[in-house]
Write a sequence for this structure.
């Protein structure tokens, strides 16, 4: 049977119209979706910018607190205002919370070497005692020294230099320089997350030569000061200092540690870290700031990181 030419043309036109409507609908939906995503992205960027400004404001506030603290007292301990965590406070569109931590209450990993880039025996011995206090293998001390020191010679008997790291499945080389973050220790050969997390609360990455504030030092760090300080002695020292610190730290430690170790102790703080968390809408920002407070009262941020230490 022959088809009527007009009917065939009308069918083609109808199909063409349907296809055009479908295509226009797809384009319209795509444009609406892209516009929605652009709005979400723009809103998120604005929220993160706002959160960063709030975080920097909190950092400035912390600096003011540290300046006032230096003017009020000559020592630093855990009973002072700076050591009290900031509870969540409302800000425009969200909230902010934070806290300051004394980094000199921890063992400075960079003290494992000298300014010349060679191993520092007293620092190595102290780190070994810290590892033992945490029930970790003291051989990690020599492995860390080889990561930091300037040479490529393996320390005896448990060091690890380039020939070890370049033989790994994903090869890399030792840093042979100071750490800027303790998280770099995760790069040590065979370092696992569990070991690192045990170490993290008791270590810091500061300029060489920083001293330990005995008023804020953790129990294991106090144990690391001498082989004669065990868990019970460290607990007694923490109870003695309470929240006001040692009235005479030299007298408290003079008979417990060697004279050269006593010279590495102090009851004030120069380096503190601020951790601030800001939530604006659905955006969350965490900023870490390493602050240096000099004896003149000036507070300077040495390093800022977002999301990770």
């Amino acid at each position: 049977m022959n088809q009527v030419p007009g009917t065939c043309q009308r069918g083609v036109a109808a199909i063409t119209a349907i296809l055009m409507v479908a295509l226009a609908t797809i384009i319209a939906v795509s444009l609406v979706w892209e516009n929605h995503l652009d709005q979400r992205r723009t809103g998120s960027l604005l929220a993160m910018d706002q959160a960063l400004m709030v975080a920097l404001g909190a950092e400035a506030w912390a600096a003011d607190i540290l300046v006032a603290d230096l003017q009020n007292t000559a020592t630093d301990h855990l009973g002072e205002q700076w050591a009290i965590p900031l509870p969540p406070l409302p800000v425009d569109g969200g909230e902010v919370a934070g806290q300051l931590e004394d980094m000199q209450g921890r063992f400075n990993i960079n003290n494992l070497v000298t300014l010349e880039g060679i191993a520092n025996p007293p620092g190595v011995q102290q780190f070994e005692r810290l590892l033992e206090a945490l029930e970790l293998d003291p051989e990690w001390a020599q492995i860390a020294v080889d990561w930091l020191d300037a040479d490529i010679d393996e320390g005896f008997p448990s060091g690890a230099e380039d020939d070890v790291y370049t033989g790994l499945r994903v090869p890399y080389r030792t840093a042979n320089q100071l750490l800027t973050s303790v998280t770099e220790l995760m790069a040590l050969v065979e370092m696992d997350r569990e070991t690192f997390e045990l170490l993290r609360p008791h270590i810091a990455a500061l300029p060489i030569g920083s001293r330990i504030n005995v008023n804020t030092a953790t129990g294991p760090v106090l144990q690391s000061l001498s082989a004669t300080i065990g868990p019970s002695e460290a607990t007694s020292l923490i109870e003695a200092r309470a929240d006001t610190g040692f009235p005479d730290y030299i007298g408290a430690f003079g008979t417990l540690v060697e004279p050269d170790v006593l010279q590495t102790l102090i009851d004030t703080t120069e380096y503190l870290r601020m951790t601030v968390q800001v939530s604006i809408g659905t955006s969350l920002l965490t900023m870490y700031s390493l602050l240096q407070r000099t004896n003149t009262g000036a507070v300077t941020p040495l390093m800022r990181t977002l999301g990770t230490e």
Q: What stands out?
A: The chain has two domains: 9-104+271-306, 110-201+224-251.
